[in-house]
Amino acid sequence: MKLFPQDFLWGGAVAANQVEGAYREAGKGLSTSDVQPQGIFGDVVERREGDFGIKDVAIDFYHQYPQDIALFAEMGFKCLRTSIAWTRIFPHGDEDQPNEAGLAFYDSLFDEMAKYGIQPVVTLSHYEMPWELVKKHGGWGNRKTIGFFEHYARTVFQRYQHKVKYWLTFNEINMSLHAPLTGVGLPAGSSKAEIYQAIHHQLVASAKAVKACHEIIPDAKIGNMLLGGLMYPLSCQPQDVWETLQQNRTWLFFGDVQCRGEYPGYMLRYFRENNIALDITPEDRQALKTTIDFISFSYYMTGCVTADEELNRKSRGNILDMVPNPHLPSSEWGWQIDPTGLRILLNMLWDRYQKPLFIVENGLGAKDKISADGAIHDDYRISYLNDHLVQVAEAIDDGVEVMGYTSWGPIDIVSASKAEMSKRYGFIYVDRDDHGEGTLTRRRKDSFYWYSEVIASNGESLKR
């Protein structure tokens, strides 16, 4: 077996809005996630006293994190990726002074992780922002939001500078093209020009956060986070190959700006041909020159691209409008399973950027069942993760610099897309269903013991 680096960061990844609950506790404000109780593709719901959303409690990580961190430590985690809920720190997003109770919660969380030698990998904005910034200021469509975000980032960098050395700016930043409210606080139906202007403000804010991190925590590393939407041509027809290049550029564009510090020529042409005139100031251009230290990304599946409009019409409605690959199997949710695609993506990103790579989301959502003896035999998850990690080892042997791997999510959480508990990813089962019923009891699955062995052996136990 190809060996992983001795300092490889093994762990898992969660998001505040999908695990914490306590959605109005200790001064927390409403976030965009809170007003989308049915998930990122659901309708906006104005919250009222006494109404219900499954994320309001989620898996109650806010209160139960000590036992969950202990379970992660039992598996041998070197790191845990989580996010800070912006609205715990600045409930409305535009305050001058932070909410001390929110800051204190993350102090306690990071201290608990430190007890077990688990490094926090912290995302500043993971699929949520203060709802008041959307209502009052227009979300990321307003240039003022850059300043609000920088103030928030500097506040948490200052507070946790001795506790957190790995940071990410925006989760799956390219998802704004598909879910504008979740990504940039704009309503569905916003024009491409409006969305790209909001994205521009977010890219500037990300660069400013990188600069602030370098100033405040000189020994920290801060990266971006991309949704790794790798596409293949459906055929070797040149038209399909060209369309595939164009599709891959729609998400690689974000990495190009964050790694190279300027807009690539192909995007400038796209803006010209689509009558998109962005407001980019000289100060913006200067800010963008501050680039990230590493690239982090999620990887779940690949898809195909074709110039054939009839085939494209048939594919509309599945995630990211991918044309299915006839050579790949699919999960229960129709996500195609492609371990080799992870090796291809790692090589592609390394060749393109020559920056360290961090796989911060990868996993299999499935409907787990408890056996009569109380065990949860999730051999399908073990197989999925094993095959993907074997390909990571191959990429490392190819010469790719890979910092670490955090599975999504190491404990069952509320899914982002449709706010389901039944779509389970974890090594740890949480007794809660889609209706919010259950005891919240934690239970180890077979994959818990499997992943423990993988970490203990630094990958040597993987089956090729």
From TrEMBL:
One of its GO terms (molecular function) is 6-phospho-beta-glucosidase activity. Keywords: Glycosidase, Hydrolase. Its EC number is 3.2.1.-, 3.2.1.86. The active site is at E361 (nucleophile). Gene3D superfamilies: Glycosidases. GO terms for cellular component: cytosol. Belongs to the glycosyl hydrolase 1 family. This is 6-phospho-beta-glucosidase. It is an enzyme of class 3 (hydrolase). GO terms for biological process: carbohydrate catabolic process.
